[in-house]
Amino acid sequence: MEIQGNCHEDFLEVKNLFQELHDSGRETGSSFAVYRDGEPLVDIWGGYIDNERKTLWQRDSLATVWSTTKGIAALTIAHAYESGVLDYEEKVSHYWPEFGCNGKEEITLAMLLSHQAGICGSLTDNIDDYYNQQRMAEELAAMKPIWEPGTKSGYHSLTYGWLVSEIILRTTGKTLGQYFKEKIATPNEIDFFIGLPESEEQRVAEMVPFPKTENKEVVNKENNEAKKLSDRGPNLLKHQNTRAWRQAEIASANGQGCANAIANLYSLVVTGDKNLKILQNSTIETMTKDRITGRDLVLDVVTRWGAGFVMNMHKIIYGPEKSSFGHSGWGGSCGFGDPVNNLGVSYVMNKMANNLAADGRSVQLIHKTYECLGRKNK
Known about the structure:
Elements: E1 4-7, H1 12-23, E2 29-36, E3 39-47, E4 63-64, H2 68-82, H3 92-95, H4 109-113, H5 127-130, H6 133-142, H7 159-172, H8 176-188, E5 192-193, H9 216-220, H10 225-231, H11 243-247, E6 256-257, H12 259-270, H13 281-287, E7 292-295, E8 302-305, E9 310-311, E10 325-328, E11 334-338, E12 343-349, H14 360-377
Antiparallel strand pairs: 1-3, 2-3, 2-12, 4-6, 5-6, 7-8, 9-10, 10-11, 11-12
Helix pairs in contact: 1-14, 2-7, 2-8, 6-7
């Protein structure tokens, strides 16, 4: 399978590694992109959009990127903040009065975005509830936190989406997907959707779930209350390839996009070109400010959270720069911005691995990208 797309000559080793990933059988279909100032340094793709390997992956093939969507939602919140619609330090109940009960009265928007609210799961097992923003907002507004908000983080893997969506809806009258489309995606030609129109269905890649054997670690680990609550709910792997899943707006999990769009978006956030810049530097500093660092109750790893963003740690997940920020998705996808080198980077695939954080394929590609960048800058 020959890899398609364009790659600057300084980054040919990245393309070669991408080819190796496909030749080795680690991929079904995927795309990888590195952008600077809205222009591609790497924009490559290969493989197939279906598990039967009959239809080739294209540059504009869309895949469910799971929690990579959270980074896009966080950028949407940041846009609303810069526009004067929201304040990170304001209490959530200011925008959403029904939320201010049962121990949630003091939760700020920043605490909510950094997974400190203590409402990291829903009690429903009905997938149709997940597609109903009002129903989920009502449940979450009435919940009691399972830890004292602001003292710890516990990854709100799904509830993050309904929570931030309700705040955008309450303050703008628009759904988060609509606000993102009107204010960010359309003006900047970003090919990403939270709530996929039926007209785009022909571009969608089939998600290929990981084998059941990869799920055994969940059985072996002792779960605390946060993990138990987070793990509740319907089996989303059974629904991820349905039209109902893709057309819903779940801003924590079901964004549909391709690597070039996500990389381009982040590059327009961290660009030094004021004519291209989507957000002001002061906004970026505020949204990426360290909100809490420590062992996450749900993920059981040490995390550093910004206001909705995974902040780079250990110079591994998002390259060597500590200030890099973004989000990764279940199965392997990721997208991030590097404000030091003014890069936007993304990896999108349809063959899932059972992980919630870094994926070996993306880590290899990102590491190789920075190896090439280091030689280029010498």
